[in-house]
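Morning run. Coffee first, then this:
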Amino acid sequence: MRPRHLFAALLLALSPAAVKAEVVAVCGTSVGYSHAAISTAALEPETAGAMPLALWRDAKGFDLLLNWGERDQHSLRAEGADIVGNELGSELIHLVVIRAGSHGLEHFLFSFENDSPGELIWNAPGDAAGAGELISHETTCLRAN
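And here it is:
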């Protein structure tokens, strides 16, 4: 009977559900990021003030927390966005975000080099359907661990 319990405990410890939630990186503010732009995908960089965001990882995968540390902090995953993440070593994380009702894909590329501050490059389609315009913004990020 004991080997069965030991096996179950080992299986639980090694399963993806056992992965603890963690903040991977926190990105500062940038003139290009606006509340309207990143929270609704209606890209208007010159409107509202810039906002911080956090790259989050838990048992379900990656998530982006917008307005990080503020009262109106919210998760893209909780809002119904599909997020596909790919970690390329310890220095590069690429997320593709598909929001309901959006006109295209958003790309978030987090890059880190050694112990220095990292960088986030965010690309998204313009707000007009079929406009073919690509909006891109950069900001500095700090790795959380």
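Helices lie at 2-14, 35-40. Good start to the day.
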